[in-house]
Design goal:
Blueprint: H1 28-49, E1 59-63, E2 66-70, H2 78-82, H3 88-91, H4 99-120, H5 122-146, H6 148-151, H7 159-172, E3 177-182, E4 186-191, H8 192-208, H9 216-234, H10 248-251, H11 267-284, H12 291-306
Helix pairs in contact: 1-4, 4-5, 4-7, 5-7, 5-9, 7-8, 7-9, 8-9
Length: 307
């Protein structure tokens, strides 16, 4: 029962945090990262053993008009879409240009994806991820049509998805203090909303002053979709296009109010409502709980103290 759980004997939520035993648990965040790694390895093997394959990169073909570059089937490119390869808006999200590219994207998705997935659930989390990647790809293609000399090359990577998660996280937890490791070494502390604003400014600057091969338009499109998904679709705030970042309490305000428990929680209630919350604490820590889950846990704890 509840009193047998050691962390249920904590007096208040602001008491010293209990550190759960490590227990690996699959989630869509982890599944996507594993998929990125698997596709990356397959791409390396294909490049080594089948260098003339047309899946992971384009191939030059000699035609009557001269040498023509046939676009790859999986990376996103203007030429690929002109050939009707619309699936590239999804497949490019699973490809990466190098080891550091996939490490950075996987790290960002893991850091922000766990809590966003815990708040949204698997289905909405996947919708956010893929829609951010698709919208980011569309942004990149539109910019490539305007400035093909700077942005006309093929695009790969899950960066748009990662920045969609950054936007969603910042909207739900704008005041959350984050410690980021620049180049995985230099610690920088800042709020989530500050990270989102800085990321948007850098992406805009990268579009206006292109100096590298970074898909800044895809980053900006991913952030735009993350903002739109949380603010307009989930929160249903269609009254205006602008507005301050909304904290998590307001984000979850539309959830039904917890009905008062009976004098003593039933075994069925503990199994169906409380036990999944305790399992979530074991897997992700007590900080991953939503306000409704905290309310359920706190109400059950008070009943135990009175028992």
């Amino acid at each position: 029962m509840l009193e047998d759980r050691d962390y249920m004997r904590q007096p208040e939520y602001n008491a010293p945090r209990w550190t759960p035993r490590f227990r690996f648990q699959w989630s869509w965040t982890v599944v996507l990262i594993v998929a990125y790694a698997a596709v990356f390895v397959v791409g390396l093997l294909a490049q080594k053993f089948f260098p003339n394959n047309n899946f992971f990169h384009g191939q030059p073909v000699l035609t009557k008009d001269g040498l023509e570059l046939v676009p790859g089937y999986l990376p996103l490119s203007v030429e690929g879409l002109r050939h009707g390869y619309v699936w590239q808006l999804v497949t490019y999200q699973f490809l990466h240009a190098g080891l550091m590219h996939i490490l950075f994207n996987s790290w960002a998705i893991y850091m922000f994806g766990r809590e966003v997935e815990a708040m949204l659930g698997g289905k909405k989390f996947l919708t956010l991820m893929f829609s951010s990647g698709i919208v980011g790809g569309v942004f990149q293609i539109l910019v490539a049509l305007v400035w093909p000399q700077y942005f006309g090359g093929p695009v790969v990577g899950a960066s748009a998805c990662a920045f969609g998660l950054v936007a969603a996280f910042a909207l739900m937890f704008p005041e959350r203090e984050l410690t980021l490791l620049i180049f995985f070494v230099i610690p920088v502390q800042l709020r989530a909303k500050t990270l989102l604003i800085a990321s948007a400014v850098l992406a805009l600057a990268g579009i206006v002053f292109p100096m590298d091969n970074v898909a800044n338009a895809a980053h900006l499109g991913g952030m735009a979709m993350g903002w739109f998904f949380v603010r307009k679709i989930l929160q249903g705030d269609w009254s205006r296009l602008e507005g301050a970042l909304r904290p998590a309490e307001k984000f979850t305000a539309r959830r039904p109010v917890l009905e008062p428990l009976a004098e003593k929680p039933s075994v069925g209630f503990v199994e169906s409502e409380v036990d999944p919350i305790l399992d979530k604490i074991s897997a992700h820590g007590i900080q991953s709980l939503t306000p409704r889950e905290r309310e359920i846990l706190e109400t059950a704890r008070k009943h135990i103290k009175r028992a």
